[in-house]
Design brief:
alpha/beta; GMP Synthetase, Chain A, domain 3; 21% strand; 3 domains; 654 residues; 5-stranded mixed beta sheet; globular; Rossmann fold
Length: 654
């Protein structure tokens, strides 16, 4: 859809930005915490800085259609570099800041990168390490000058210097940038995000301005977001969710993005900002709850008793009060009291006092976890989407929250199911193409123009979509029962003591599981019991820990027994792995999803042990340490049986 009015149509991000600078020049667009102090940048200041970066890039020879790599934590100037690149008709390419140099080399080669804007010395070092493999790379521009004084390579340049250059360029050719912004069209590619590569090499997903603006527009209308929102931007900029919430929606609605000082200070910064609109993957909500529970178990008896009493009250009526349903006067009074004594202070500690809307996505969230946050008055909802759909397919409407659904199709989106249960979606938010991969683009969109998500699911009687698993991961046991590994693993990971789980069962007689314990939660539990241990491997092998994990698995089995579709896939045997699954060892992707096939291959002897009826299995594993050294960990792992339950034909409670 091209725009004939040129500048009047707000159909690209640079035009939206310039409009905010006109309409709300003095409103805070961004804040960043540096050296313990919040710095605020108004929309006018952001627009001025973006102009300077854009003109500086143009001066260096950056052209329309060029790709600009952006690597680092959430920093205002990195977000501005995204917008600056878009002003020139370039394509920002976002990379995960924790990726190792070799992983970055692949993306830089694939996207044919000439220019990169990186956060700091750590990222500069990675660029220098792979420099010979990426001959096209001409310039690496760094934001943070600390530690850079003795670097003399000619390809390096500070962002300050670039902006200075840009300001001179802008003074000399004051109509240059406006002319470039005017050339932009809504169908231009506005961003390139790489898929996490669970099954092969990551692919560059090209999204247009129009697609992300449509997704942002739909979300803003749906949740009635205004320019008064405050959001904490701490999730990787290379992740589609961050780009939707912290860039596209902020650019559309004009609300404030707050960047934390560092990964370590996110919790403190969250409390100081008190966002009104918040997004986190289930893992973050799990970790917060785990910390609360650990702290509660260390509290005095009276405090503990009060906490558990009021948590019982909130479980009974909290979610109903939040949804505006009718609740007895007695319960309302108890809940009011609970809010004064427990929920209010708890939300304050979590930084959630002001939240109107909170979202989670990226993996299924345990219903108990979901219920917990809603019961203390946090309006937590689930959404569903992919990189290829701007993270925008389904949203949960207020007052219609179901614990096990991802809600209804979002505004402008059409969702239908293929015969095999695969979810198909259509709408303005679909990718334009995979970069240089017309074959993959053609394979992902069917003849009717629907994107094939690769997820399996079904609609319930109220039109809510429920996701079961990745379509390709859904298998069958030998007796014909359905086996959905992800679904079972998410139930296991709800337990605070289980960090990761990998289940097996396709083409087998029964289901088995590998478990990773959560070192912090189990360590804390062990210390309270007076148990000594010398590290992860030692703790994971202890009898009491096996007992603790078995109880969790049996609870999951009892739950599965009540679901007619899943009752056949209860877990019969399990073992606790001798090491934590790690992205550096290739066992997880950078978005912390298990690479199932890799894990099955790497630990094949353990899988065979689980099915051969053995009581234990010896294994040696090579590991990579943080300093790049490799070593071996060996262990004799115990294999344990678990109780299973007779299937009950009950309807699942919503």
């Amino acid at each position: 859809m091209s725009d004939t009015h040129g500048q009047t149509g707000l159909d690209t991000f640079p035009r939206l930005l310039m409009q905010h600078a006109k309409l709300r020049p003095n409103r805070p667009a961004m804040r960043e915490k540096a050296y313990g102090i919040w710095q605020t940048y108004t929309w006018a200041q952001v627009a001025e800085s973006v102009r300077a970066i854009a003109c500086g890039l143009a001066e260096l020879g950056f052209k329309r259609g060029d790709r600009l790599a952006i690597i680092g934590d959430n920093r205002p100037r990195l977000y501005w570099s995204v917008a600056a690149c878009q002003c020139l008709g370039g394509i920002p390419v976002m990379l995960y800041q924790d990726a190792v140099a070799q992983e970055m080399a692949y993306v830089l080669q694939d996207a044919e990168i000439r220019f990169a804007v990186v956060e700091d010395q750590e990222q500069v070092d990675k660029m220098l390490e792979i420099r010979d493999e990426v001959p096209l790379l001409e310039r690496v521009i760094y934001d943070e000058a600390r530690g850079m004084r003795h670097y003399t390579q000619t390809l390096l340049m500070g962002l300050d210097e670039l902006q200075e250059m840009g300001r001179i360029h802008d003074r000399n050719q004051s109509d240059f940038l406006d002319g470039e912004v005017a050339k932009g069209a809504s169908d231009d590619i506005s961003i390139m995000l790489y898929t996490s590569g669970t099954t092969g090499k990551p692919k560059g997903v090209c999204q247009t301005h129009g697609a992300f603006i449509a997704a942002a527009q739909g979300g803003v209308q749906f949740d009635k977001l205004t320019d008064q929102e405050d959001i904490l931007s701490y999730l990787p900029m290379a992740w589609v969710g961050d780009h939707l919430f912290s860039f596209a929606q902020a650019m559309l609605a004009g609300f404030t993005i707050n960047c934390p000082e560092s990964g370590e200070t996110v919790m403190t910064d969250l409390r100081e900002i008190g966002p009104t609109y918040y997004f986190a993957p289930p893992r973050v909500f799990e970790n917060l709850l785990t910390q609360v529970m650990i702290r509660m178990e260390d509290a005095g008896a009276i405090k503990r008793k009060m906490f558990h009493h009021f948590m019982e009250v909130s479980r009974r009526c909290g979610a109903d009060i939040l949804d505006g349903k009718s609740v007895s006067a007695g319960d309302r009074f108890q809940y009011w009291l609970g809010n004064l004594m427990v929920y209010g202070p708890l939300k304050n500690v979590l930084g959630m006092s002001r939240i109107r809307v909170a979202y989670t996505a990226g993996a299924a969230i345990g219903p108990d976890l979901f219920r917990f946050y809603r019961s203390i008055g946090v309006n937590l909802k689930q959404l569903y989407g992919q990189t290829e759909t701007c993270a925008y397919v389904c949203l949960q409407p207020d007052g219609e929250i179901k614990l096990d659904s991802v809600g209804k199709p979002a505004p402008f989106v059409e969702v239908k199911l293929a015969d095999n249960g695969e979810i198909l979606v259509k709408g303005p938010m679909l990718l334009k193409t995979y970069y240089k991969r017309p074959d993959a683009t053609a394979e992902s969109i069917n003849a009717d123009g629907y994107f094939m998500t690769g997820d399996a699911g079904f609609f319930d009687e109220d039109g809510h979509l429920k996701i079961i698993d990745r379509a390709k991961d859904v298998g069958k046991l030998n007796d014909g029962s359905m086996f959905a590994p992800n679904y079972i693993e998410n139930k296991l990971k709800f337990f605070q003591h289980i960090k990761e789980a990998v289940t097996f069962g396709n083409g087998r007689d029964f289901v088995t599981a590998f478990i990773n314990i959560d070192l912090e939660a189990v360590g804390n539990w062990a210390e309270r019991k007076g148990m000594g241990y010398s590290g992860y491997t030692d703790l994971a092998a202890q009898d009491a820990v096996y007992e603790l994990i078995r109880e969790g698995i049996e609870t999951v089995n009892a739950d599965l027994a009540t679901d007619p579709r899943m009752s056949g896939s209860q877990i019969k045997r399990f073992l606790i792995l001798h090491k934590e699954l790690d992205a550096d060892d290739g066992e997880l992707t950078r978005t912390r999803k298990v690479r199932r096939n890799f894990v099955a291959e790497r630990y094949q002897v353990l899988v065979e042990g689980l099915y051969a009826g053995k009581k234990s299995q010896y294994i040696e594993t090579q590991v990579k340490y943080e300093d790049g050294r490799t070593g071996k960990i060996s262990a004799d792992l115990r294999i344990e049986e678990v109780k299973t339950f007779t299937p009950q034909a009950t309807k699942q409670a919503a």
